[in-house]
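Hello again,

I reread your note about wanting to compare the complex against the isolated chains. To keep things tidy I'm splitting this into two emails, and this first one only covers the full assembly. Below are the input lines as submitted, including protein chains and any nucleic acid or small-molecule components. They are followed by the predicted structure of everything together. The single-chain runs will come separately.
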Amino acid sequence: MRIVLALALLSLFVSPGMAGEAQIAVAANFAEPAREIARAFAAKGAHTARLSFGASGAFFAQIGQGAPFDVFLSADEERPRKLAEEGHGVASSRFAYAMGRLALWSRDAGRAKGEETLREARFDKIAVANPAGAPYGAAAHDAMKALGVADALKPKIVEGASIGQTFQFVETGNAEWGFVALSQTVGKGGSLWLVPAHLHAPIRQDAILLKHGADNAAATAFLDFLKSAEARAIAARYGYETAP
Amino acid sequence: MTSLPPDLWSTVALTLKLATLTTLALLLVGTPLAWRLARSKAWWKEIVAALVAMPLVLPPTVLGFYLLLALGPDGPGGALASLWGARTLAFTFEGLLIGSVIYSLPFVVQPIRNAFEAMGERPMEVAATLRASPRAAFWRVALPLARPGLLTGAVLGFAHTVGEFGVVLMIGGNIPGRTRVLSTAIYDYVETSRWTEANWLAGGMVAFSFAVILATILIERRARARLA
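Full-complex prediction:
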C-alpha cells in the first residue's frame, strides 16, 4: 500500500509524456498578447510557457552569453537573424509572428491631433525608447525624421530603456507624450495617434527557436502555437498585423 | 584610444557632480540626524533609525517606482516643479539628486552615528563642566572626535551614489549631460553590444570601487590606531 502511494506521488512529478515547460524571452512591446497566448497555450494541457519581458537588445546580449531561454520573441528581425548566424538560434525556425504598429500616446483624452501634435510640440517631454536597444525606439526616430521634426524635438526627448519603461513614463504622467507600441495602449484610454506605417521601416517582429530549446518539445510546440490562427487572433486584438 | 566613447567625459563629469552634491547634502542632513539618533533617549528613535536604514534593503526598483510617482505631476514633486512652470522633477538633475540623497542616506548616517556613539557621554560632560555651551561642545568636541566617521560616511555616500543604477534608470530618462550617468551608460553599451566601451567604463568602475573600499579600511585603521 505504501509503495503504491509512493508511486502515485512520484507519478505526479514524472508522469510519462510529462508536460514540458519552455522559457520564452519576450520583447516588452508584446508582453500583453504574449501573456494571453501563453494562457491559451497552457490551456491545451500539453505544455506551459514561462515568459520573461525586456528590451530586445538586452535579451540579445544575454542570449549571446548563454542565457537559458528556449524561444526568443524579438521586436525586430535583425537580432534573431544575428543569433542564428552566430549559432545561438536555429535558423530554419525563424518567422515573423507579428508586424508591430507605432503609436504616439498620451494618458489625457482628446489631446492627439495627428502629426500636428509633433509639429506644434506643445509639451515639455516626449518619451522614446532607446533606439539602439529597442526597435520601436528606432522606428520612432525614423518617423520624427520623416516628418522633419527630429531636431526640434530632440531637447524634449526622455529615453526609456525598453518600450515598457517608455510607456511607464507616459502612464505616470512624467512625460506628456510617448512613442509606444499600439498594443500597450489597448484598454488604457487617453488619446493616441497611430503613426502611419510608411513613416518608418516596417517593424517586423521575428521569433526564433534558440539552441537551448532545440530539444525542448514545449519550445517547438509554443512556436507552432504562435503560428496558429488562435494566437494570431489574440495578437490582432492588440493591434498587431500579420506578416505579408 | 579611438574606442573611448565620445560623451565619456560629460558622463563622468555629471556622475562626479551628482555624487559630490549628494555627499554634501547628506553631510548637512545626515550629521544632525546621526547626532540625534546617537544621543536621543526617545522611544521612537529606533523607528527613525529603521526608516533611515530602509534603502539598504529595499530594491532600487521600489524606490525608483515610488520616486517616479512622487516626482511626477500627480505627486509632490510635480507640485514643486510647477512653481517654475515644469510638470515633473523626473528626468532632471534635481530629481536625481533627491533620489540619490534618499538612496545613500544610510551609508552616511550610520558611520556618523556609530562615531558619535563610540565617543560616549564623557567628552560632552567634560566640555560642559568647562562651561562650553552645548552648541560649542558639538562643534569643537563632538565633530572633531567623530571625524573618522564623517570621513567614512562621506566616502561611502559618494561611492554609493556613483554606483547607483536602478533608481537613475527608472527616473532619469537617459538624457546626455543631465541624467545620463556612468552606470546607465554601461547598461546602454552592454545592451547594444558595444562591449569595448562597456569594458572601458566597467573596468574603471571596478578600479574605482577597489580604491574606495581600500580607502575606508585605511581610514578606520588609522582612527583605531589613534584611539588606542
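For quick reference: Confidence is low (pLDDT under 50) at residues 12-17 of chain A.

B.
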